[in-house]
Amino acid sequence: MHIHIVGICGTFMGGLALIAREMGHKVTGSDHNIYPPMSTQLEEQGIGLFAEYAAANLDLKPDIVIIGNALSRGNVEVEAVLNRGLAYTSGARWLYEAVLKDRWVLAVSGTHGKTTTTSMLAWILEKNNTRPGFLIGGIPTNFGISARLGRTPFFVIEADEYDTAFFDKRSKFLHYRPRTLVINNLEYDHADIFPDLASIQRQFHHLVRMVPGNGSIVVPDCEEAIDDMLRMGCWTEIEKTAIATPVKDNGSAWTVRLNSADGSDFDVLRHGRFEGRVCWELTGRHNVMNAISAIAAASHAAIGVADSVAALCGFSGVKRRMEVRAQVAGVTLYDDFAHHPTAIATTLQGLRAKVGGHERIIVVLEPRSNTMRLGIHEKTLANSLASADYAIIYQPDNLGWNVAGLAEQAPNICVMDSIDGIVVHLAGEACRAGDHLVFMSNGGFAGIHGRVEAALRR
Domain 99-313 is in which class? Predict the structure, then answer.
């Protein structure tokens, strides 16, 4: 079968392409925003890419077209699919019908941490000889690919609440029908499709309704938005996770006891009993919570806690999640995907705990997500950068609001409207030996990482 994917370079759609190829299908795809690491991964797998949307991309007469949720009516290739009467579907529906309907699905959902937690869970299963299938919205460095079909009943998936397609406005994760469900957290996001938090909670509750009674739902303790959603009705056992305080244990089934402030060393306890110690490369309390959620989910799939702990000690992270890109002239350059104020804040807090107060943290942020572009986070973005000594926020011409006001809210923030200007500024006067330079964007950011690295080397 020839499958053509419109919007193939999105992390989800790119993963579908890998799975379809592994199943023996011929796969082609098109996109207008092709950049690494997804483009590199697809090319390495021999998947043909069209760099622009065009009706001519369909001249090979594919058997079915999978249309990504970033595409809408008016797109030239979408219109050609409809006009020619070609068979088409959404990525989520194709995945369920072709792969998931006969599998034990372990789904990781929530506003933040989905990619990392899904990667941890897949790695735990992998290290314990289950050979799971997986589809992840990033590339775990332990695997080097974002998706694979797998050889056992287990399939681990990053479960996104964004809508499915222009012809199916339900959240994507409603197609997955998980047996094991992780909900990391729940905040307002995706302002382009959700009017308020309540509408997001409703979609999550639809997902909760699908988890069978003998399944498992893993959630953090004392998350008001999640607790409110679960009070709408729940028919599945809830496993709660928490970081224990020095004063008391809050009674959650799964708790973590920190041995280091930066989260690089912690103990895992189940019902108050010590089960193992994780020492790893990652930092931040958010990653500690991601880890305990992955351990709890793996336990539902009959993986022993000690075995999960041993696997996580060898977990090396995900590309574009505080990925060290280079070290030049004493400056460490990181690439990070964070694009919501909560994720920005927790990521920087983890780095601060690691490097201490004597080494500077410089952030370069591109407000690129749909929610960020609408200005929804205008009142909270400045505070999210509090752990940085210096933050540069890029103001593109087509942003829907004026970022300049953020510089008035915090003395560590400056606003610049030129990528070239930022490169010159960083290489010329802003950076010095010992600095940690963090680029934050959920896109390619015009290749600024490599440009700054090259300028520093010069």
Answer: alpha beta
